[in-house]
Amino acid sequence: MTDTARTITKVLVANRGEIALRVMRTCQEMGFKTVAVYSDADRNALHVRAAYEAVRLGPAPVGESYLRGDLVIEAAKRTGADAIHPGFGFLSENAEFVRQVEAAGITFIGPSADSIEAMGDKIAARRRMIAADVPVVPGTADPVTDDDNLRSEAERIGYPVMIKASAGGGGKGIRIVRNAGELLAAAARARSEAAAAFGNDAVYLEKFLSEPRHIEVQIFGDTHGNVVHLGERECSIQRRHQKVIEERPSPLVDDAMRAAMGAAAVKAAQAIGYVNAGTLEFMVDANRDFYMLEMNTRLQVEHPITEMTTGIDLVRWQLLVAQGRPLPLSQDQIRFEGHSIEARLYAEDADHGFLPATGTVGRLELPGGPGVRCDTGLFEGMEVTPYYDPMLAKIIVHAPTRDEAIDRMRRALSEVTITGVTTNLPLLRRTLVHPAFRSGRYDTGTIAAHPELTGTPLSENRRRNVALIAALMAHVLRRRRGFADRPSAASASSAWVDAFRPGDAR
Questions:
Q1: CB neighbourhood size of 224 (10 A)
Q2: Is residue 45 part of a domain?
Q3: Phi first, then psi: what are they for 35, rounded to 5°?
Q4: What is the CATH number of the domain that holds 306?
Q5: Has residue 423 been placed in a domain?
Q6: If you compute the radius of gyration of the chain from its CA atoms, what whole number of angstroms results?
Q7: Which range of residues forms the domain containing residue 119?
Q8: How many structural domains are present in the chain?
Q9: Paired residues of 216 in beta bridges
Q10: What is the domain-level CATH number for residue 31?
Q11: pLDDT tens-digit readout, 111-145
Q12: Which residues neighbour 172 within 8 Å (Cβ) at sequence distance 6 or greater?
């Protein structure tokens, strides 16, 4: 399979925040001009300032801005951008958008619309993978449409089972059912959530694996028929089906298992003629048997840990492949060195049900030093709104060994200061020193199984005392330092509450 070479000179990045900045940096290194798009809420964002040009899309809600493919394409035409990079989320896995981009004579930096469609419907993807002899989690091959079918299929598979949205992603439309009495109510909730999130209420059943590990494999294909894998990433530290900490290599995977998972991932990609960056997600059970869950037809949030351990700039590869170039390395030329960990800093209160948080960033200090990378769009004075994903930053470290990487991440997290908005920083710090993580013997239920990771809430009386002390401290600091806007009483209170909360790894 070959493709006509395409010339890229200017790239519109159809995203925001840290991923927009990350893509722009590689574009600029390769000599491509960049175009940012933004909503009204992001008019002062760092990705807007970093781009060669910037185009307003519309109001803050994503349906009026970042999800408006027509406006994105119009912005590309207006600025003369000859390529669009979607980042992740938003329009990155929208097949119709890809077709519209190509119809406009613009290069889409990602897979084909056909590949996105082939893997976007989870039920259809299961059928394809079974046909390609790729192991999948036991479950249903078709949507479960009525209650009688639901009951009979659940009994056939065996409890516990997972109800999953066919068009799902991002942890939405998923319910774990442990017995028949929970089944119908859980299915109704999953269908309702799937309809609201994806406009499709179809669900299917999968066997819920015991002590499951979530391990994914990065693959890359080009237009010349080459497909390689770049090793696995361990993504089992999760809350509500969303990843929190990732590492590469996985402490569970040995060389033989890595080769087998990599071969299965390449086989899956080849089955659909996949081109560009993609990720095969697997679940691994207590017996170390692995099963494919789904394919993400885009760049992953956690791609930096692959970059840190391979020395490969995945965005550079995306741009090269989009121009019709062959992959720079063959499978036997890819090398893995050291250990890398990524921690996701979210705007949420992990100690109170992971409630999303908003606010204005006051004081901000991010880590640095040897082996530390921080991908973020944060800046002091930035308003964290409820409109977008709560991830604020990714802190990534690399070291020769896993123990050294953990110690480096612990040090890096100790350097983080952010006031004005509540974050999951205490959770990240506690997790890094918890025996379950340090030992490498953890699974997707570890955070839920260890309530000490999400802290012990303060009594109301103690909280009032802490808030009073914080207010007094804020007043003293304002008087001494002469900048009235930081730290605010609210942000100081948040910091003092964290300090007084038992179990915090500071």
A1: 14
A2: yes
A3: -125, 130
A4: 3.30.470.20
A5: no
A6: 23
A7: 111-136+210-337
A8: 4
A9: 233, 281
A10: 3.40.50.20
A11: 999 999 999 887 888 889 999 999 998 888 788 98
A12: 165, 193, 194, 197, 198
Domain boundary among 185, 207, 229: 207
- Tell me the catalytic residues: 298
pTM, full prediction = 0.83
Q: Which residues pair with 12 in a beta bridge?
A: 35, 84
Give the C-alpha separation, 121 to 338, whole Å: 36
Strand-pair partners of 282: 215, 292
For residue 370, give the DSSP letter: T
219 and 288: one domain?
A: yes
Give the Cα separation of 42 and 273 in Å (integer): 37
- Express each pLDDT in 320-378 by its tens digit: 999 999 999 999 999 999 999 999 999 999 999 999 999 999 999 999 999 999 999 99
Domain termination site, one of 186, 207, 228 = 207
Distance in angstroms (rounded) separating the CA atoms of residues 22 and 376: 8
Of the CA atoms within 13 Å of residue 487, those in its CB half-sphere come to 23
Phi, psi of 229 (to 5 degrees): -115, 150
d(C-alpha 114, C-alpha 94), whole Å: 10
Tokens of 255: 């060389």
| Long-range Cβ pairs for the range 410-413 (8 Å, 24+) | 410/505, 411/367, 411/369, 412/367, 412/369, 412/372, 413/343, 413/367
